[in-house]
Amino acid sequence: MQDHNHTIDVVKGIAILLIIFTHFEWTPEQRKSFFFLFVVNMAIPVFMIITGYVYSLSLARSGIRHAEDAYRTPLIIKRLIRYTIPMIAVIIWEIVDPHFNVLAMTRGQLLAWAIDGTVGKGSYYYPVMMQLVFFFPVIYFIINVKRETGLIICMAFNAVYELLAWAYGINPESYRLLVFRYTFVIAVGVFACKKYKIGRACSVMMMLTGASFIIAAGRMNFVPRILNRDWATTNFLSSMLIVPAMVWVLQEVRIRFAPLEVLGRASYHIFLAQMIYYGGYYSILKEKFGSRQGLLAAGMALCVAAGVLFYYVEKPVQDHVIRRIAGGRTAR
Hints:
Shape: globular
Distance between the termini: 26 Å
Order of helices and strands: HHHHHHHHHHHHHH
Oligomer: single chain
Helix content: 55-70%
């Protein structure tokens, strides 16, 4: 069994700060800067790579060797609970808080709203992670069986999905809610966990491919004909920019920095806190600050503080529920 990788928490801590940062009110021109295109926009791909890595460690530590074992009820329930209990808290908050005007919906609309992860900045993340609970073993065993070639298979699957999404006319609102667009980057996390290496020539080619596509779509007004245009700068081609670096970081880098580690462990709760902030309170805070810099700093501080507090309050509840439900099923 491997020791806890503190580097993962540090990287997640940085990534969650970038997510709060990107959801701020930036102009289209500001979002074309190289900092946005090459750093800020890579936050979610980073999270997906780390998710693939961490889920792989979990399966390995659980002694999972066959696909059917990866769908053991306790394991599935545990993952569903970890994402759903914090989300339920958000749903309740937005229902009772008049800033969100949720009660104006019909019952059917309210149900769809909850399943879709409510609304707001990054609300697609919850439904994507719910799907990943069931989709991840497929990715894991493709890499497990096909080894390095499995990454190519997952990349091809991702490309075919993009083609089918275009051919079937899947609209951006539906496209954003589906996990399949992240198949390749999730597979990269599995690949890194398995200690496979990306050759130097391949690494250079991947980074050049990612950088070229990002520049074309983000700065040169290139409009992809097949790949979803609204997510062009964070799709599987763009994400190639960071793949070699992320594989190296996950396999070779060991760093510790306690403040970022706390943010990394609480990253999901901070993410949910920023959804609530931008959805219901950003406009209120905006009226109280004369400078954009002050508004950005205050908003980020508020999201981080609320998210960390949320994590430390909710985590014991979550652990208790998992012990009662998943643990009880294991005992039976």
